[in-house]
């Protein structure tokens, strides 16, 4: 008999990542996306869902872009794979040049990975290797931030600030990891637009850790400039500058994890430029290929790269790499993405849509059942008052209601995050928030 994906999803072998699997089984038909075009995903049961989070923060140019499809096909016909160890290919080298040209000037080398998790683990390894090569092997400590999300590798999980995730895999955590206190002040800064005015001094928490451990033992600090996965938590004005200053003063490397903020989400190529703070490394993934093929990477400061190049001629400089590092298909897509961004000026478009999204979401400020709303760039998040008996249940309910109301949503706990495609129209953004506001009212009534 013919394969029925809905039936198989309900009873078959597929283990869905990071999901309430049992819930999916109840309504499998609505969970199968069979095609997508532009800002809409089409499900097996015939709905067209507006893609409110651009996939998982990864498809800002929308789905099915003909220039991306053409680039992928052409590359597949020309060169579908080549090893990245000792060999490479023109598409990959070109993409590295172009990404470095987009980044702050000091960051001029790119190491490619296949995902954000791999990019984070790679950056942490580069930090350790850099200090060791400079005779500072004692700088083994890594510092993350509460509520930070840095993927699921053991490195990223260790520096990540989501406590239940770390606890589940406690036996595999890196040694010597600490977390900066979170920056969000729900009492003082609720419903603030863009960056909260107060709170730069929370960066001084890094001085507390330096005092506790001795600066000479700390290798790197890794932060998301805007915390994405835990609900668009925007840094207070001046906070990142202050972190930068403290790191510089103590010889600690500063890594920005820009897996979400990179490639235009904040209306600039990277958050580093939006906030005017230059880190020592930037991790990226997701939008670099518009989600079409997996790719991530690390942008590295010039002299960090050079440190690895000073040994004997035939030495292996950095014993780290992936079978698919710099995959030609991913690189071809990355180049097509940057062509489209340039030709259609899409980072500027994201910036010009920021006030539209801001007005729309803050129209819901202090509505019943809403605790906080945050926004920056083309991203926003709404905290819903949890059901005291079942935290997170309202988020799941809103997700399900979204499916019936033409919205593909992203709810983490009782927080709804929004990061629509750059190609959205102002009316689509207003409609999205209008529908969402009604769904929130329904579940919190
Ligand atoms: N870092 C950040 C900031 C992320 O948002 C994510 C994914 N949401 C990751 C790392 C991990 O990326 P991936 O899922 O591609 O491994």
From TrEMBL:
Entry keyword set: Pyridoxal phosphate
Cofactor: pyridoxal 5'-phosphate
Keyword Oxidoreductase: no
Protein family per UniProt: Belongs to the class-III pyridoxal-phosphate-dependent aminotransferase family.
Name of the protein this chain belongs to: Beta alanine--pyruvate transaminase
Organism: Asaia krungthepensis NRIC 0535
Lineage, opening ranks: Bacteria, Pseudomonadati, Pseudomonadota, Alphaproteobacteria, Acetobacterales
